[in-house]
Design brief:
This protein has helices at residues 5-8, 28-41, 59-70, 85-93, 108-118, 133-156, 179-186, 202-205, 238-249, 251-259, 265-274, 277-292, 313-323, 328-340, 352-360, 362-367, 374-379, 383-391, 393-404; strands at 13-18, 51-55, 74-80, 97-101, 124-126, 166-170, 191-197, 232-236, 300-305, 347-349. The protein is α/β, with parallel strands linked by helices. The longest helix is centred in the middle third of the chain and has 24 residues, at 133-156. The protein starts with a helix and ends with a helix.
């Protein structure tokens, strides 16, 4: 879907893939399946014997609830207690159990502590999205190739130049951003842009804090994040992401977008069904990228709408309680301040020094806390390590085809 320029305010095309039509309403269900099936193919987990644990701040865990039960596993999702009410309801609805850990979106360390506690039972296996390379492989191959096919087909239809100038993604587990590694191979010169919250600028300045862009856990750099291949880092405000979602989904906001911003009513209705908080964050990052790179007509910036409003109604209700019901004036302020005038602040380019600094942050989580070796960490500095991990898909596919035959 190409977003209307009346919303983005830039000449470049802002193109989004949305997760609304996946079984759980998020594309993360595909990554969860890949992680689970790889572990099963190598006999690390067995249906009916093992309890599988999906550490998450939302959509990966919801995907685990859906996938695990259908593959015959007792499934447990661990996520922070301050996640939206709808997340817990979906997990239960798909037949899994959940454990709440202290804190909010950025409280990933508490999730890891609970995983360590549960894993003392030999029948419990933790499928850690922040660590297992199946998450990376899924997005490299599936998300990456899907984006490439999409922009090429759109180009043949006269929309854009058939190429991708930039790929923008909030990092979270750093699964989704792995698509950028594939896109950079296919479109030389493409820039991979990672996003994190202003309220918790971990990579930006070794910062910390609480935020509410649900689905992009932070205060650490994940094991599966190829930061040495990331070209730019930007920070996005969590309140702008939430109020932006409110504008896109509130009836008064939707009327403003149609009547005053000049967006076609059918487009306004469609946008109200495909955005979640992190999706707004990603689009704001995409607009910022187009402005910073001075991209023009025909050039494409691609990003992801991970989930939809269906898991944020309670968050929107809380905002209404806090700020009052949206009226035309408030809608105008949100449109102008959040979308029409995206600021070029909190931007770092991927210089050699910045990449080294981003990468070095992995040490404190993965070597000091999670038992990885320094040699293993240092190996990730080379792109050859990542190429080797991607190449494992051939063996994985062969095993899967043999089992299905």
């Amino acid at each position: 879907m190409m977003l209307p320029k009346e919303l983005t305010g830039v000449d470049a095309n802002i193109i989004v893939l949305y997760g609304r039509d996946f079984p759980t309403g998020s594309h993360k269900v595909g990554a969860t399946y890949s992680v689970t099936v790889e572990k099963q193919l190598y006999n690390e987990i067995v249906p009916g014997e093992n309890t599988v644990v999906y550490p998450s701040t939302g959509n990966y865990g919801i995907g685990g609830a859906w996938v695990g039960a259908r593959m015959g596993y007792d499934s447990v999702v661990i996520l922070p207690e301050m996640m939206s009410r709808e997340r817990f309801e979906k997990i239960e609805g798909y037949g899994a159990r959940y454990i709440k850990t202290p804190g909010c979106e950025s409280s990933v360390k508490e999730i890891y502590d609970k995983c360590k506690e549960l894993s003392r039972d030999p029948k419990v296996k933790v499928l850690n999205q922040f660590e297992v390379m199946a998450n990376y492989r899924f997005h490299y191959y599936v998300t990456g190739n899907t984006i490439a096919e999409m922009v090429e087909n759109m180009g043949k239809s006269g929309i854009g130049n058939g190429k991708c100038a930039a790929y923008v993604s909030a990092m979270g587990s750093a699964g989704t951003i792995a698509a950028g590694d594939r896109l950079k191979e296919l479109f030389p010169g493409l820039k991979i842009v990672g996003l994190e919250p202003v309220q918790c600028p971990t990579l930006y300045n070794n910062g910390y804090g609480d935020h509410d862009i649900q689905g992009i856990g932070d205060k650490h750099v994940t094991w599966i994040h190829n930061v040495m291949n990331m070209d730019m880092l930007m920070c996005i405000d969590d309140m702008e992401s939430k109020q932006g979602l409110r504008l896109l989904t509130d009836p008064e906001g939707m009327r403003y977008l149609a009547d005053e911003a000049g967006i076609a009513e059918d487009t306004v209705r469609q946008m109200s069904t495909v955005f979640g908080i992190s999706g707004v964050c990603n689009v704001l990052g995409a607009i910022k990228t187009a402005k910073f790179m001075r991209l023009g007509k025909g050039e494409n910036v691609v990003t992801i709408l991970t989930d939809t409003i269906d898991r944020y109604r309670s968050v929107m209700s809380d905002l209404e309680d806090r700020y009052g019901r949206m009226d035309r004036t408030q809608a105008a302020v949100y449109y102008d301040s959040i979308f029409a005038n995206v600021k070029l602040d909190y931007i770092q380019e991927g210089t050699a020094n910045n990449r080294d600094r981003w990468f070095n942050l992995k040490y404190y989580t993965w070597v000091e806390q999670q038992g990885k070796t320094v040699a293993g960490l240092n190996a990730q500095r080379s792109q050859d390590w990542w190429i080797g991990e991607r190449a494992k898909v051939e063996e994985i596919d062969r095993r899967l085809k043999e089992i299905r035959a």
